[in-house]
Amino acid sequence: MRSPTLYKARVNESQRKPEHKLSYNGENKFVRKLIEEFGGTTVAFKDLPTEAQKAMAHYMAADGEAWETDDLRTCRRKYGRVRFGVVRVPRQVLETECVRNFLSASDKHNQTWETFEEYHQWYMEDSVVENHGDSVWPVILNCFPDEILQDGWHRFHHYVENRLETVPCLYYVG
């Protein structure tokens, strides 16, 4: 699997506004820590790499129903100035947070996992995780404290399978 480029495509330092360095106002303290520790920045939707635009447009239109279409041309025109946070997080850091999350969630699934590997194996057996090939869409970090990811669990587990070193992440800014 190719290593994705950091979301600096089409974004140079002169385009970044200092006041947008950390604009996360979600309730998830771990996500806030990730953004601070790994240098999250905000970028206008139109300036995100195509994979990130696709991930957010799909989530906002198909899953979240907040946007009426996931057509990128329309989304760039209509939502191009909307800012989203971007950060790259080491896969193992996300795995560690998943362990913390599933210790409380395991009761919901009537499962008990002691390691991330056990959880990952269960997830891969219990879920349909398609092969994403070389495509690396970012996952979307959760702004609520109950889970680390709001969207992208299948992708994340695919990246774990393929040992992707760092996972591109998007987050909402306020």
What does this structure look like?
- Helices cover 38% and strands 14% of the residues.
- By secondary structure, the protein is of the alpha+beta class.
- Strand 3 (139-141) and strand 4 (149-151) form a beta hairpin.
- The chain is globular and about 45 Å long.
The shape is globular
Lateral strand order in the biggest sheet = 1-2-5-3-4
Average of the residue pLDDT scores: 81
Assess the beta-strand content as a share of residues: 5-15%
* Record field, number of beta strands: 5
Number of helices: 6
Low-confidence stretches: 1-20
Query: Which structural class fits the helix and strand makeup?
Result: alpha+beta
Q: What summary fits the major beta sheet?
A: 5 strands, mixed
Distance between the termini: 34 Å
Can you give keywords for this protein?
174 residues, alpha+beta, five-stranded mixed beta sheet, 6 helices, 38% helix, disordered N terminus
Task: List strands and helices in order, with pairings.
Layout: H1 29-37, E1 41-44, H2 50-63, H3 72-79, E2 83-90, H4 91-105, H5 116-126, E3 139-141, E4 149-151, H6 153-161, E5 166-172
Parallel strand pairs: 3-5
Antiparallel strand pairs: 1-2, 2-5, 3-4
Quick recap of the structure?
This protein has 174 residues and is α+β, with helices and mostly antiparallel strands. The protein has a domain of 120 residues.
